Automatic annotation (TrEMBL), chain A:
Swiss-Prot/TrEMBL cofactor(s): pyridoxal 5'-phosphate
Protein name, per record: serine C-palmitoyltransferase
UniProt subcellular location: Endoplasmic reticulum membrane
Gene: SPTLC2
Domain Aminotransferase class I/classII large: 140-499
Gene Ontology CC terms: endoplasmic reticulum membrane; serine palmitoyltransferase complex
Spans traversing the lipid bilayer: 39-58
Metabolic or biological pathway: Sphingolipid metabolism; Lipid metabolism; sphingolipid metabolism
EC number: 2.3.1.50
Broadest EC class assigned to this enzyme: transferase
GO terms assigned for molecular function: pyridoxal phosphate binding; serine C-palmitoyltransferase activity
Family: Belongs to the class-II pyridoxal-phosphate-dependent aminotransferase family.
Signal peptide segment: none
TrEMBL record, chain B:
InterPro entries: Ser_palmitoyltrfase_ssu-like, SPT_small_subunit
Name under which the protein is recorded: Serine palmitoyltransferase, small subunit A
GO biological process: ceramide biosynthetic process
Membrane topology, record value: Multi-pass membrane protein
Gene Ontology MF terms: serine C-palmitoyltransferase activity
Keywords assigned by UniProt, alphabetized: Endoplasmic reticulum, Lipid metabolism, Membrane, Sphingolipid metabolism, Transmembrane, Transmembrane helix
Gene name tied to this protein: SPTSSA
Chief location category: endoplasmic reticulum
GO CC terms: endoplasmic reticulum membrane; serine palmitoyltransferase complex
Length: 533, 63
């Protein structure tokens, strides 16, 4: 395989591992890989799901004929002639597959979710339909699941003290919306700080990250506008796009040719029946896609946006604070100008250890949103201790509190990410995504291994998040690790050894590539693929 | 000692079988049902082979 230039990359039907030096708009190597599912593993996974489906039908039959006690919700006797409520595949899946391994999710945590946390131990005597607490607390479980990228989820230190002080001064509840009486001076300070952090003219902060997307996209686009959204966008973006009433067209994940084709069609043909030009074309993308670990091809998108005169909405929920030399997000990671992105959205939940979201852009945009956003008019504004946590952590990252703590954390996160990803790939697991993304999805594929992995890791004191259908395609279930700056090298080494052990026990090392040491050569036509088989 | 390691190996292989066929997620009575179905089908196949294989081999050799 020759090395391919970025514009031709797509993850269908090829071992697409490549290093891109794309004639100058990519200033650094962009290395992503989405290894193909091995054929035998895919067949066995389908076989496993087939067996589970058959047993699911058997159990449903037994429940219907009252041979077995029915624990889940069913319609009442009087409603049996109505349209059935629980017959679709989602409910079948929940009753018969999800319930069996339900103990890997919703685990109650009883300490701050920092680098280590405590879990309440649960036991179930009726196969996960009900749980009982044994009363024991499992201490110091290494946390590989929280979105704690810069380690600001802590209950001691500067941020926590500042938030506590703010609670004593302002209380916790705001009891009003931004447009009525809920606009504190702290909110104004936060918004100026966020604008300075991002390098934009102005910004606005909202109380909930999900609501930032779903309530502001309807305020920006409406009927007669076109939304081009990525295949794997988050539910908040999809909900906001649907609520707006605009026409939605989906392009393949991170595929610039698909996007360009859609843009060309939109410009040439216009609206569906009348062929009038679209009022606005909005491209919805995310900075880091958390299920794949892939980073958006931002230089290509900005080039396309300028060529076809479209607007760009960038959702940096996972990438703000986590990418870039000073943690300013994916725009700084690629060395681009923040003014090229029309609407920069992000959340404070992940890297800042707080809650809420923001939108940054030109002053006209933010002033418009202050009056027209649903969230500003109807939703309660952010709580004061949360605002103070964001202000303190942002000042720490920017270095304005006088220490280099923020800079150290950003560098620690980058080091941890590279180390963790490299080690996992060397061990032979299939890891999706970009080499620089702190979200590390590791493929599990088989349904029984989802439950087994979660349980075995907890037995060895590591807390992980496993994901299956419907958040991922049905055979591509995965375990998603989130690397944090709060993890020391010893913790990562412990975690890696345990993952190695569990990987051998469950036979998870599916990868057929063995990496050779990375050779940092400039791109030339005769360079062959860096992996040996 | 050889018996102990053989037992461990068999136990690990049985665990892999449970994971691949997703029997790991099923309750014990469901596992019994599936295992007995599988063993009866496999047993019937072996028995048929045992009864009919000599005839088939003779037929092939005399053709």
């Amino acid at each position: 395989y020759h090395q391919k230039i970025c514009l031709h990359c797509d993850k269908v039907n090829r071992k697409s591992s490549h290093i891109c030096h794309n004639g100058g708009i990519y200033k650094r190597p962009f290395k992503e890989s989405f290894e193909e599912t091995p054929m035998l593993v895919a067949v066995l996974t389908y076989m496993g799901y087939g067996i589970l489906t058959l047993f699911g039908y058997l159990r449903d039959f037994l429940r219907e004929w009252k041979i077995e006690k029915c624990h889940n919700a069913t319609e009442r006797e009087e409603q049996k002639d109505f349209v059935p409520l629980y017959q679709d595949f989602e409910n079948f899946y929940t009753r018969n597959l999800y319930m069996r391994i339900r103990d890997s999710w919703n685990r109650p945590i009883c300490s701050v979710p920092g680098a280590k946390f405590d879990i309440l131990e649960r036991v179930s005597y009726d196969y996960n339909w009900t749980f009982k607490y044994t009363g024991r607390i499992v201490n110091d479980v290494i946390n590989m699941g929280s979105y704690n990228y810069l380690g600001f989820a802590e209950n001691s230190g500067v941020c926590a003290d500042a938030a506590a002080e703010m609670t004593l001064k302002y209380g916790v509840g705001v009891c009003s919306t931004r447009r009525e009486i809920g606009n504190l001076d702290k909110h104004e300070e936060l918004e100026k700080l966020v604008a300075k952090f991002l390098g934009v003219e102005a910004s606005m902060a909202f109380g909930m990250g999900f609501a930032t997307n779903s309530m502001n996209i309807p305020a920006l686009v409406g009927k007669g506008c076109l939304i081009l959204s990525d295949e794997l966008n988050h539910a908040s973006l999809v909900l906001g796009a649907r609520l707006s009433g605009a026409t939605i067209r989906v392009f393949k994940h991170n595929n610039m040719q698909s996007l360009e084709k859609l843009l060309k069609d939109a410009i040439v043909h216009g609206q569906p029946r009348t062929h009038r030009p679209w009022k606005k074309i909005l491209i919805l993308v995310e900075g880091i896609y958390s299920m794949e670990g892939s980073i958006v091809h931002l230089p290509d998108i900005i080039a396309l946006k300028k060529k076809y005169k479209a607007y760009l909405y960038l959702d940096e929920a996972h990438s703000i604070g986590a990418l870039g030399p000073t943690g300013r997000g994916v725009v700084e990671y690629f060395g681009l100008d923040p003014r090229d992105v029309d609407i920069m959205m992000g959340t404070f939940t992940k890297s800042f250890g707080a809650a809420g979201g923001y939108i940054g852009g030109t002053k006209e945009l933010v002033d418009y949103l202050r009056t027209h956003s649903h969230s500003a008019v109807y939703a309660t504004s952010m709580s004061p201790p949360v605002v103070e946590q964001i202000i303190t952590s942002m000042k720490c990252i920017m270095g304005e509190d006088g220490t280099t703590l923020g800079q150290e954390r950003v560098q620690q996160l980058a080091e941890n990410t590279r180390y963790f990803r490299r080690k996992l790939q060397e061990m032979g697991f299939i890891i999706y995504g970009n080499d620089d993304s702190p979200v590390v999805p590791m493929m599990l594929y088989m349904p029984a291994k989802i439950g087994a992995f979660g349980r075995e890791m907890l037995k060895r004191n590591i807390g992980v998040v496993v994901v299956g259908f419907p958040a991922t395609p049905i055979i591509e279930s995965r375990a998603r690790f989130c690397v944090s700056a709060a993890h020391t090298k010893e913790m990562l080494d412990t975690a890696l050894n345990v993952i190695n052990e569990v990987g051998d026990l469950l036979q998870l090392k599916y990868s057929r590539h063995r990496l050779v040491p990375l050779l940092d050569r400039p791109f030339d036509e005769t360079t062959y693929e860096e992996n040996e088989d | 000692m050889g018996l102990r390691s053989a037992w461990k190996q068999m136990s690990w292989l049985y665990y892999q079988y449970l994971l691949i066929t997703a029997l790991y997620m099923l309750e014990p009575w469901e596992r019994t049902v599936f295992n007995s179905l599988l063993i009866s089908v496999a047993g019937m196949a072996v028995y048929t082979g045992y009864v009919f294989m000599p005839q088939h081999i003779m037929a092939i050799l005399h053709y």
